[in-house]
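Supplementary Note 2. Why include the ligand at all?

Several targets in our set were suspected to adopt different conformations when bound, so apo predictions alone were not considered sufficient. For every target with a known small-molecule partner we therefore ran a joint prediction. The input for LMY7XDAE is given below.
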Amino acid sequence: MRVTTPTPDVPRARLAILASGTGSTAAAIMDAAGTTIDATVALVISNNSGSGALEHARTRGVPTLHLSGVTHPDPDALDTAMVEALADARIELVVLAGYMKKLGPRTLDAFAGLVVNTHPALLPAYGGQGMYGDRVHAAVLADGATQTGASVHVVTAEYDEGPVLAQAVVPVEPGDDVAALRARVQAAEKSLLLDWLATHFR
Ligand SMILES: Nc1nc2c(c(=O)[nH]1)N[C@@H](CN(C=O)c1ccc(C(=O)N[C@@H](CCC(=O)O)C(=O)O)cc1)CN2
Ligand SMILES: NCC(=O)N[C@@H]1O[C@H](COP(=O)([O-])[O-])[C@@H](O)[C@H]1O
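The joint prediction is reproduced in token form.
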């Protein structure tokens, strides 16, 4: 008779996700965590108390937190609260997945090199202030670009300027509108981000 020794419950790396809106990317990460990604989503934070991201977390039993200018009108206090929340949850990597606010210097200092963001374009193209969500796809279409894509990058002080970690190219098809391009980019983006996370925690 073959005796198998059960694998001891080795604690997994602890991820936090920051998201502002629908949260489809956050949901994809949560659904992959513990299977294709050897990590645990320990906390989901949103600046929008009514966000889909927080609802996705609640339905999956993942702890949530609303941190915003409403909870902390002073930006420095908000930055400090973010550091404390991430530290208290023993977070080892922070993923921005549709987070629409600038992370503050205290958070970036406390988690230097440990915050990554997914952006729906081929950075440095279509990045920076004002470049978020459908505004990115509209700008790509307005320029008549024949391709766009998704980028995963390290988060630094200014929007979208950190080192790029991974990219995926996505074609712009004739007749594309924002919705069609968003859908194609977001599908590629989820694959890119989940693959990067799976490799990062291997
Ligand atoms: N310190 C950093 N914080 C954030 C970064 C970053 O690289 N460094 N990335 C963004 C995510 N992002 C693109 O990937 C991004 C999000 C939002 C904006 C933007 O212009 N926001 C508006 C406010 C929008 C709103 O209130 O809904 C603004 O600041 O005027 C640009 C890029 C996340 N944080
Ligand atoms: N510049 C930041 C930015 O535009 N982020 C984008 O917001 C979307 C969030 O979708 P989701 O809420 O369904 O995950 C994602 O496509 C992400 O790349």
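The chain has a mean pLDDT of 96. Residues 107 and 133 are 23 Å apart (CA to CA). Comparable summaries for the other entries are listed in the accompanying table.
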